[in-house]
Structure formats: C-alpha cells, structure tokens
Design a protein that fits this description.
This protein is α+β, with helices and mostly antiparallel strands. Strands 1, 2, 8, 9, 10, 11, 13, 14, 16, 17, 21 and 22 form a 12-stranded antiparallel sheet that branches. An 8-stranded parallel barrel has the order 23-24-25-28-29-30-31-32, surrounded by 4 helices. Strands 7, 12, 15, 18, 19 and 20 form a 6-stranded antiparallel sheet that branches. A hairpin with an 8-residue loop joins strand 33 and strand 34. It starts with a strand and ends with a strand. Hydrolyzes a variety of simple alpha-D-galactoside as well as more complex molecules such as oligosaccharides and polysaccharides. InterPro entries: Aldolase_TIM, Alpga-gal_N_sf, Alpha-glycosidase_related, GH, Glyco_hydro_36, Glyco_hydro_36_C, Glyco_hydro_36_N, Glyco_hydro_b. GO terms for molecular function: alpha-galactosidase activity.
Length: 738
C-alpha cells in the first residue's frame, strides 16, 4: 500500500494531492466513485469534521445552509457533522458516546492528521469488505481528545465501481484510566433538509424481510435489535429514498452494518431540517470497556448511493458483496441441489432409515443429502427430541454404532440418477447452543450466558453458550473439527435457534461476536472446501457479518412459496440471490397449510443460490415426481445465472397480483424471468410484464413467444401473458440475445 500523509499545523492547510478516488486539498476531502461524491472538510476554528455532500457527482465545496441564529440551538447543533460526540452545544444523538473513569461523558475530538492508501486494511477481529489497490482506496482521519487522551481514527473506504463507501472507526485509550464505549455508530452523516422516506426490513420468525416505508419526520425515526443477534425482527439495514424513488429511478442511500450482533439504526431530523443518519451498536448492549493502552474497533457499515433507484442500489450491493465481502470458495460457484432429512424423518432416525432416504435422494437426481437434527448425544442425553443433547457433538451409538464414517461412506456410494456423480453428504449442527440435559452443561454450567443469581431462561429447551470465553471458543472449534474429520462431510448447516436473554454485562454481546468470528474464521479457513450454510430459526442471522464467512443462509423456516416470494424479494434489497437458500417443501405447507403446485414452489425456490427439497420422496404424488426432472433441468440452466448475474425486481407481491423478477447473465446473453399470478382473477386483465436490463437494440428470442422482439419492445411495451383462472400460477421465461 502506498500512503499519502497530511495534517493541519497551526491552522495552516497542507495540500496533498492523491491520485485516484480520494483527494485531500487543504482541509477539504473528496471521495469520488463512478456515480457518487462524498465531500467533507475540517472546520478551521473548531477542528471538527463537517459534512458537505453525499450524493451524485459534485466537484466543488459550496457554502453551507444559512440558519437563522437565536434561541438555544446554536454552535455545533447547526452544523452538519461527520463524527458527532456528546455535549459542546450539539443536542442531537451522537455517533460516539464515551464514559470516562470519573463518570463524565463529554468528548471533544479535534482533527489531527490524515493518511490515504490504495487498497483497504482488514479490521481486527471483525468481518469487513476487502479489495486490492485497483478496487478500493482508503482515507483515515486521525482525531484527538486532548482533555481525555483518547484518539479516534475514522476510516473511509470507497469502491468507485459500486458507488459504495465503507466506514468504521477505532477508539484508542491513551490515558491512565478505564473508559467504556456507550454508543458507537460506525456510519454517521448529517444530510441536508431533504424530503426522504426510510425503508427498513421488518418481520419475525417465518415472516422475515418485509419492506416497511415511513417518512423521516422531525424527531427520531429508527429501530434496533436487542436479541443479541441481528434477529428476524429487524435487519441491520436501512435505505433513505426520495418519495418519488422507484426500482428504476430516483435517489437512494443504503446503509448496511457488517455485524451479527445487536444494533441500532436511527435517523433524527432536527428543527433546521438536517437529517442525522446513524447505524452501529445498540447502546443498550454496548458499554464496551477499553483499558489504558487498548483499542476498540467499531464494525463496518457499507453505504451505497444510487441516482437510478432502489434496483440499481441493490445490484451494487449484490456485486460488491459477491466480489469484495463473501470470501468463501463457493461464493462464485454453483451449489449442489440438496435434500434435507428433517421433513422426511424428523428425530425418528437411525442409520437404516437414513440410508434409505439417501438412496431415494440420489434416485431423484439430487446431489447432496443433508442429515438434519437428531444424530448426536449419548444416553441419558441422546438427542431423540429437542430437550437434550445439544453441546455433545458425538454420534449417538444407538443410531450409528460405527460412528459417522461407515454411514457417510454408504451415502457416498450412491450414484446420482442420470449422471456419473456420487451423492454428497452434509450435516446439521448448532454449536453455539447447549441443552441443560447434556454432558457439556453438566460439566460446565458456567459456560453459558447468564447473570448472577437471575434465572437462566430457556427457549426451545436450550441456553446460549458464552462465546466471549476463549475456552468455549476452543471447545466449539475442536468439536466441529472432530465431526468434519470423522467422515467425508461436504456441507454444514450451522443453526442457531434462540436469542440471548441474560448477559453478564451489556458488553457481553460485543465480546460474543468477536468470539463467534474467531470460531468461524478458524473453521472456514481450516476447511475451505466445506460448504457452510448459516441458519437461525430461518433468517434470524441473515446478515453481512456472517456472509463474510459463509456464502449462503437459510432464508426462512417458512417454505410456503407465496410467503417466500415476499421474503425473498425483501432479502434482495441488499443481499444477492446467490446468498439465499430456498427449498421446495411438501404440501400442505407445515406453517400455512396451503396447497400450491410444485411448479410454483420450484419457480420461487429457483431464484436462490442454494436450491433444494424439504420433503419425503416416497410421499411425492405421481405428478410431483414427474415434474422433478424438469425442475432439475431448469436448475442446471438457471443456477449459474443466479450465482453471478444481475437481479431485477420487476413487480413486488405487495404491490400487484402479478409479481415478477428477472435475472440477466453476467455476459448479458441470457435472461430468466420468474413470473407469478397470486390469485385467480376474471377481471381486470393482468398488466403487461415489462422486462429490465436488456440491450435496447438487440433482438431476443424466447420460450414465451414466436420470432424475436427487441430489448426496447420487451422493456417498454412488455409481454401480455395468458394466465389460467387459478390461484398460485407461475411461468419461467427464458430470453436469448441474438
């Protein structure tokens, strides 16, 4: 990395010119992407950092808004700040709040120096975006509080190709007494007085990632997770958009926290109209201690700007995360079609029944068999139901007398139908949890998250192991390694079926996340050829922090295809479809009791990077069994496009009875349209289905029409599809560029 250094000395600006995406001109800093500019400067009197512009391309620093002075709101309250602290006339919510040893919470950070480097340094102990010197440039701004001997280093990294800016900061305690970080918003900016709406993704178990839109009004608008994890309830993401912004036009600012723990997202419109945007740790679960000589590292927030609508913002996130966040060997590879044992067998398993199910899996042409819950634990803590066994990761000798090795070897011996490939084996684990009815808890009751004499409250009959402890981390690493070393295991579904209740201190959540990242970093580095899939009662931890380590996540425990369509559309606001795991399940659906055709169920699931089945093959109807070869043939064609192509939300299920989505291959020669009818209608007629992302002048042939149409025709006039008068209908439409 080549570094350019600069400072302000005695109020005199030192001009340093940097080639590339970041320039420093005296006290002015400019970050420039293909379609974005981010400008801020150092105030010469206060040495505070002042926001000037974040949005479309801009080359000049213009005078600030003229705010009438008077009343109590003066000074810093009327300034658009980059790193607001508490006190000193700013009445708004701060980005940084530090409690000092004497009890005071005032900070006074002043600019000291900067450095510009090509590339992007890693964050110690935390996941973060990455890139080479030609992909990303980084500006570090050093600030110092002379009253408390605390240094803040603000990091700004810009990925010009994606109009993306990643921000984080460090706090170093250079004093002689302990401090604690009470609030840490990794990304903070004060936008001007704009008419904006906030979009967030809200939900719950089996109901994740629902789009909620509300105006940014005076006062605070926001949400947070206190579950210890990112949670089903809220995702650590928000977008600010103009009221007229659509999928294809208008301004959109996205903010996504690369972190898996509790968080808070907040906007505050003050009396002058300026909008403060904050995203970072949840202050209720912060209070992170920093001893003298130690440094606190805030997690990263990735912000993407688009002047061309939410869809363009989403595709920037998708491409950035696939190429510069998710580091798995599988991120840019097609994933094997799988069948999970849970729907077929539940806890009622033994080696004979599993061998039979695996053989049925191979006979259907499916490539990966996944053994779900129930395979581990010894009497009296055998995992024959969900009340015992978690934490004891050894095969149940009553079910597997020879261990996993002989059983997996049998599974590996089955030939996948219509191919020369052998069936692969995967397994379910929940390493961060423990049942009180287990050998592990009996021997180490102090290894769980708890607080003093307070009751240890159970969810799903289990407790959370305290991954803030190094001995717990080491135990999990060894336990998972023992399982992986015992047999030819190609895939792990890593589950997590409850939130955190009792914590010893508010800071225990941050310590837990650092421990979790150490564990999964060790395992994914040691076993790079194992495909890891995250799960947390569905999408409870579908977040960018774990996407760094694992290329895919189970999107929801709700596999009802009609509900899943809404969940998947919401998830793609910031996550690429390649990161979603989606399956065809049995009907009637176990949650909604809805009966939907296998064609519709498959069309919804084929939108995702990891495609599979949650059903018992012997229970398939003749019609369903006959449909599976065609479904697998479509998967062969579509999955490579899902992995690396561009995704377009053509119409949302919340807005229309005829939702649709589209993928365009990376080489732009093929497009796949997923079209749906939710409810049967006699009238009105369906609207034309207008495509997106096509070459305007190119001609396209299709499975949906005779002859060829131009890209302009398909995008502007669209196609009038014929739908039967039946509920839950779907169509897969292939477009081939001529």
């Amino acid at each position: 990395m080549r570094a350019i250094l600069g400072s302000l000395l005695a109020g005199v600006a030192v001009t340093v010119a940097a080639t590339g995406a970041i320039t420093a001109d005296g006290s002015n800093f400019t970050l420039t992407g293909d379609g974005v500019s981010y400008l801020f400067h150092v105030d010469p009197s206060s040495l505070d950092l002042v926001s000037d512009h974040y949005g479309g391309p801009a080359t000049d620093f213009t005078p600030p808004a003229n705010i009438l002075a008077g009343g109590w709101s003066d000074g810093l309250t009327n300034t658009r700040r980059e790193f607001p602290d508490v006190g000193r006339s700013d009445y708004r919510v701060p980005a940084i709040h530090i409690k000092h040893a004497d009890g005071d919470t005032i900070s006074a950070f002043a600019y000291k120096s900067y450095e510009i480097t090509a590339g992007k340094p890693a964050l110690s102990g935390l996941p973060a975006t990455y890139g080479g010197d030609s992909d990303v440039s980084t500006l570090k701004v050093h600030m110092y509080d002379n009253y408390s001997d605390i240094e803040a280093v603000l990091s700004y990294s810009i990925f010009p190709k994606y109009n993306a800016i990643a921000r984080s900061f460090q706090i170093s305690n250079n004093g002689t007494a302990n401090i604690s970080i009470e609030r840490a918003a990794s990304f903070s900016i004060d936008l001007p007085n704009l008419d904006l709406n906030m979009i967030e993704l809200q939900g719950d178990w089996a109901h994740e990632m629902n789009r909620v839109i509300r105006p940014v009004q005076y006062g605070e608008t926001g949400f947070r997770s206190t579950e210890g994890y990112s949670s089903h309830i809220h995702s650590p993401f928000m977008a600010l958009v103009s009221p007229t912004t659509t999928e294809s036009s208008g301004e959109a600012w996205g903010f996504n926290l690369v972190y898996s723990g509790s968080f808070q997202a907040n906007t505050e419109r003050f009396s002058h109209g300026f909008i403060r945007v904050l995203l970072g740790l949840n202050p209720l679960q912060a209070s992170v201690p920093v001893a003298p000589g130690q440094t606190f590292q805030a997690p990263e927030v990735v912000s993407v700007y688009s002047s061309e609508g939410l869809g363009d913002m989403s595709r920037s996130y998708h491409d950035l995360y696939r190429n510069h966040l998710s580091r798995s060997n599988y991120t840019l590879q097609t994933r094997p079609v799988l069948l999970n044992s849970w729907e077929g067998l539940g806890f009622d398993i033994n080696q004979t029944s599993l061998d039979s199910l695996a053989k049925q899996t191979a006979d259907l042409g499916i490539k990966l068999f996944v053994n779900d819950d129930g395979w581990f634990g010894k009497t009296p803590f055998a995992r024959i139901n969900d009340t015992a066994g978690l934490g004891d990761w050894t095969p149940n000798p009553d079910h597997f007398p020879g261990g996993l090795g002989p059983y997996v070897a049998t599974v590996d011996s089955f030939t996948v139908a219509n191919s020369s490939e052998k069936l692969q084996f995967g397994i379910w684990m929940e390493p961060e949890m423990v049942n009180p009815n287990s050998t592990l808890y009996t021997e180490h009751p102090d290894w769980v998250m708890y607080q003093g004499n307070h009751p240890r409250t159970l969810t799903r009959n289990q407790l959370v192991l305290n991954l803030g402890r190094t001995d717990v981390q080491d135990y999990i690493i060894q336990a998972v390694s023992n399982v992986l070393n015992s047999a030819n295991i190609r895939y792990i579904k890593w589950d997590n079926n409850r939130g955190m209740h009792e914590m010893s201190t508010p800071a225990a959540d941050y310590a837990y996340m650092l421990g979790l990242y150490r564990v999964v970093d060790n395992l994914t580095t040691t076993y790079p050829n194992v495909l890891f899939e995250g799960c947390a009662s569905g999408g409870g931890r579908f977040n960018a922090g774990l996407l760094y380590y694992w290329p895919q996540h189970w999107t929801s425990d709700n596999t009802d295809a009609a509900d899943r369509l809404t969940i998947q559309m919401g998830t793609t606001i910031m996550f690429p479809p390649s990161a979603m795991a989606c399956h065809v399940s049995a009907i009637p659906n176990g949650i909604t009791m809805r009966n939907i055709s296998i064609e519709y169920r498959a069309t919804v699931a084929l939108m995702c990077g990891s495609f599979g089945f949650e059903l018992k093959p012997v229970d398939l109807s003749a019609e369903e069994r006959a449909a599976i070869p065609g479904i697998l043939a479509n998967w062969e064609l579509i999955n490579p496009i899902v992995i690396s192509g561009s995704f377009y939300r053509l119409a949302l299920p919340d807005d229309t009875n005829w939702p649709a989505a589209q993928l365009v291959s990376q080489d732009e020669t093929t497009a796949v349209v997923f079209a749906f009818q939710q409810q049967a209608t006699v009238k009105p007629a369906p609207p034309p289905l207008r495509m997106a992302g096509l070459n305007v002048t190119a001609m396209y042939r299709s499975t949906a029409f005779n002859g060829t149409y131009s890209g302009a025709t398909l995008m502007n006039a669209g196609l009038n599809l014929a739908w039967p008068v039946e509920d839950y209908q779907s169509k897969l439409i292939y477009l081939y560029k001529q």
